[in-house]
Amino acid sequence: MKQKRKSREIRQEEENLNEEIDYEQALKNHKRKRLVVALSMIAVIVVIALGCYIYYQNKVYTEYNVKHTKEIDYGGTSSFTAFGDYVLRINSDGFSYLTEKENVWNAAYEMDDMVMDICEDYVAVGEKNGNTIHISNTSGPVGTVETTYPLVKVEVSADGVIAALSEDETANYIEVTAADGTQLVTGKTVLEGNGYPLDMSLSADGTKMIVSYLYVSGGVLQSKVVFYNFSDVGMNEVDRMVGGFNQYEDMLVPEVDFISEDVAIAVADGMLSIYSMKQKPSLTAEFSITQEIVDVFSNDEYIGIITETDQADTPYNLIVYDVKGKEIRNSKEARLYDTYQFVDNMILMYDETHCRVESVRGKVKFDRDIDGGIVDMVATDKAYEYLLVQSDRILRIRLN
């Protein structure tokens, strides 16, 4: 009896074990099926996403939809630029900040010859050869800065730091003032000493500045660019000057620009220089330019240069570099537009009648005349959507 009972117990254990094995196998099969389904779904999503990417990369837009219309009194003397959520209207009588719903504020300044700068939500304006700089942001006027000498140029940062270039009969002066009124730098420059400043640019955070100078060395006119740092890094440096470069020799450097927090460019009459500056400057890349430069435009990722060529059917050349100095594009162009601007990885180009949008590599996305003409165009924060300024209205358009 004991032997039979034991045999039955063994058979029961074997059956239980087989059931456990069958359950584990079924569970493994179920998990495997779920994995296959999940991977199949991921593959479908990837294929759809890739298809959409290829479709939109190659899509050519031929029309546009008007999403909103705002009537304006243009008057023929105004210009418009991106500011805040919409545009800033500028004329000799002052500024107006407009949105689609309202005219947020007006600031009246009667100026015959205006100098101004905009950085994100701040704008600074003064009259050339005057002594007062008016500062506003999207909420309205916030204050003024007085210069010691007649004003030549002004720069403003994203948080209201002001750099002013001024001059008198004998010298030029650079004054940098923090948003709270603290004087960061004030310096006198003369041609025989530091040099005559040709251009200057503040970084968006207001902590760095690049200045191009024309100076005399050994009786010969030469050019150089100088960098300043207004943070703790430059505190122990004379005039907060943290670096300079003089490889330009007798070439003029009429344009310098901080195109991002850490990248600045210098455009000479035969050379383009790209500098990196986290704390102190270093030269990233440099290119010789043999043809006459017609226009330079940039954003925080790319630098574009328009030059002349000797070809009658394609009299212009468009070259695009990234901020590391890699050449992205070099193309012959038959038409010169009034305005070129990068919008992310696209180039918006337009004149009084025609608009063209291309990728940075030259893929044409939109190319047509605009009904009613073009006074200005402003990119929005949405892809292929622009503010089109015309003589009596501002249209929000989307390409389709």
Low-confidence spans = none
Overall body shape:
globular
> Which strand order spans the largest sheet, edge to edge or round the barrel?
1-32-31-30
The number of helices is 1
Distance between the termini: 90 Å
Return the average pLDDT rounded to an integer: 88
Largest sheet: 4 strands, antiparallel
Helix content: 10-25%
Cα radius of gyration in angstroms = 31 Å
Structural class: mainly beta
What proportion of the residues form beta strands (DSSP E)?
Answer: over 45%
How many strands? 32
Question: Which helices and strands occur, and which strands form pairs?
Answer:
Layout: H1 2-58, E1 64-71, E2 79-83, E3 86-91, E4 94-98, E5 103-108, E6 114-119, E7 122-127, E8 132-137, E9 140-146, E10 151-156, E11 162-167, E12 172-177, E13 183-189, E14 196-202, E15 208-217, E16 220-229, E17 241-245, E18 255-258, E19 263-267, E20 271-277, E21 281-288, E22 293-298, E23 302-308, E24 316-322, E25 327-333, E26 339-343, E27 346-350, E28 354-359, E29 364-369, E30 376-379, E31 385-389, E32 393-399
Antiparallel strand pairs: 1-32, 2-3, 3-4, 4-5, 6-7, 7-8, 8-9, 10-11, 11-12, 12-13, 14-15, 15-16, 16-17, 18-19, 19-20, 20-21, 22-23, 23-24, 24-25, 26-27, 27-28, 28-29, 30-31, 31-32
